[in-house]
Amino acid sequence: MVMKKMKRILIGFKGIALLAATLFFSCKEVTVNNRAIEDIETELEVRDSVKITIGKKDELSVAKLKSLEGLADTLFVRLADFSNDFVYDLRYATENNFLKAKVYDCAECYTRVKTARALLLANKEFMGKGFKIKFYDCYRPNDVQYKMWAIVPNPQYVANPVKGSIHNKGGAVDITLVTLQGVELDMGTDFDFFGKRAYHDNLDLPKSVLNNRLLLKETMEEYGFWSIRTEWWHYNLGTASNDKVANFKWDCD
Ligand SMILES: [Zn+2]
Fold first, then answer.
1. How many angstroms does the Cα of residue 91 sit away from the middle of ligand 1?
2. pTM value?
3. Which chain residues have CB less than 5 Å from ligand 1, an ion?
């Protein structure tokens, strides 16, 4: 009898222990689950706030874009204020150019309004074909022309600053084409390669290079630009020749 009673008590203890263990583990499970839910909620909140931030940023940059409408043709404007669709590699604001000198205080691409209008239209056409304009140089203040002349006083490579170049008039740009992902098209030479290989009339180049140059040239001509024989990257706006050489300087703050 005593043994039977002891067994019952033991079974009773076992039962309580089992119940306690079940409660303990199920509580723990709920806690773990609660934590997981909290984590997921936090993650979602983070994701949402990132999404909201990106959304706001996009809205801000779109809202910041200005319109060229009503602006005087000869006014100087910063291209990036009017479009997010251009790519910039302004070489003279670095030492990665034939002068091996940084001649701009900071990298900015300015042109006169009429040049900007033509560039926006040309870029729209390029984008329809899967490409964008990438700038190597834009308007160049006359003082910078003097700086360049002091380093390389050779009219074969640098326009004499006394007369000035169309870059100094805000009507010339040095450009190439990149894909919408930013990959440069092969134009046969780098920017500012001074030699026959950069000439428009040098047809001794791979067919793909000639096609890339032709796409650039034909489209730019369609929008009022003309090219010079020796530099595949240089384009002058036809109506810029009579504009004055300028020495307007942009802010670098
Ligand atoms: Zn040029």
1. 12
2. 0.76
3. 174, 234
